[in-house]
Amino acid sequence: MKLKLFKGITFALLWYTCIIWAVFFIYCPLIFLLFVNRRLYRKCTDIILSCWELYPASLLEIFMGCRVCISGDDINPDDGAILIMNHRNRLDWFFLWAALLHSTKPPAHRCKFVLKSDVRIIPGIGWGLQMAGYLFIHRNWEKDKILLKRSLDYFKSIKEKYQILIFPEGTNISKNTKEKSHSFADKNGLQRYEHVLHPRTTGFTFLAEYMKSNSQLDAVYDITVGYPKTLPSSETDLLLGNIPEEVHFHIKRYPAKELPSDEIPIKKWCEERWEAKEDALAKFYKPQTDRKFATDYKCDRPWNAMYFALVAWTMFTIYTVYLTFTSSIAFYWVLFSTISHIIVSYFSIGIQQFEIDLYNKFDREREDGETRRLNSSIPTTNGKDKKVY
Fold first, then answer.
1. What's the pTM value of the predicted model, to 2 decimals?
2. Segment Disordered: which positions (predicted)?
């Protein structure tokens, strides 16, 4: 029990301290690039995040001994896509990082999560996710629709394809949320679900319609997560070392052309996916079963890269923390970065929206001007000069 607690505390400290000091010493210096070249800033922050995501996966699987099992389809990192997943507990997103790493070929996913706005003010991880361009919502649909549209338009303008993860249930399963889901089902004459919550389809429907019309949607990936043994519930479980022995993910890819075209059919399509999830999870959690989604699991791991990431990021964390308290320059840089992020997080809607504002102010105007100049330089012909080939 003491060893378990020690490993849990060590795991949490390494993971969280690495996040904070990576923001201070890697992400924050890139802020200056944001004022010079938005496209380059976005590429750099994306690459850094991809490199860092190996670290929590390595801590989870190598240090804590958690086995992440993947079945179904691979995720194509070149797809512009929507990822939808059931939300079993508050830590699903953490295990999903490892799942995304192992389910893409090569292991280089480009996923942005849709998260509650409160997450962006959390020291360290919230600041880093702002700079990584994640999408934050405020539970006000009129406001959220505008913010989502701005982010999607920006991604298209800079010619970057991403996978957008959304939890249609809106929150994780708990006694309170399950009772609300049952009440909704009873009121609308629907089946009561025991392993999922009835999905809120507004956000997904908007993303599917808008990304499809914006030529940003190649596929929808339906992900189902299950915990065959230990089931953590909150961040406290990480600290206490209550890490699941295994986490299972089943992935199904649906090409965008297979999705319905209108709002009501898309909503129905999402609801059907959740009905299928309930059936799959009912079988998964059935007593005296192997608790697997499929017999064929993908267990390939980039072990060399994971061991390297484990050592490199741990050494980086130790060194930068040491530097902070031995160098006055480093100390005041950390202090300045902390104050700046607190001000931005509490008095604006985030660095990620400031990035879009800068692009719209400078890059878009210049690109529109170049397009107009190009069009004006193309010779025009009257109808008599046209040739049909």
1. 0.90
2. 370-389
